[in-house]
């Protein structure tokens, strides 16, 4: 039973693949000083990049957990999210308010996806 780890550091791997399932480390925005819309867009661009690197895509999402610094940003984040998720391919999802490691970040996502067959 093999486990593939990509972009592995001392603390975490960016991607872990096991038995046809892709696990991504938490993804945040490219610019932590941007507004919630831009942070969500660039965070999801990072997800797309990592999914492609792993051999998956947003059409293969299984589960996503979204962490918002402030639930007041829920509607703005969802406007970007809803446009990003392909019709008919919505994952199981949770969205919670949480303190994120660096206080400037407004949103973070944890993703689990299937490999493309």
TrEMBL record:
Gene3D superfamilies attached to this UniProt entry: RutC-like
InterPro entries membership: RutC-like_sf, YjgF/YER057c/UK114, YoaB-like
One Pfam assignment: Ribonuc_L-PSP
Domain of life: Bacteria
PANTHER family: PTHR47328, RUTC FAMILY PROTEIN YOAB
The name this protein goes by in its record: RidA family protein
UniProt organism field: Shewanella jiangmenensis
């Amino acid at each position: 039973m093999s486990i593939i780890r990509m972009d592995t550091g001392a603390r975490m791997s960016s991607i872990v693949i096991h038995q046809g399932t892709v696990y991504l480390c938490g993804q945040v925005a490219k610019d932590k000083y941007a507004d919630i819309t831009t942070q969500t867009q660039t965070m999801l661009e990072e997800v797309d990049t990592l999914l492609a690197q792993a051999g998956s895509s947003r059409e293969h999402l299984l589960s996503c957990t979204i962490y918002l610094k402030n639930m007041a940003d829920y509607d703005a984040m969802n406007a970007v999210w809803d446009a990003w998720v392909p019709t008919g391919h919505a994952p199981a999802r949770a969205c919670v308010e949480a303190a994120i490691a660096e206080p400037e970040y407004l949103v973070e996502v944890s993703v689990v996806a299937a490999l493309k067959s």
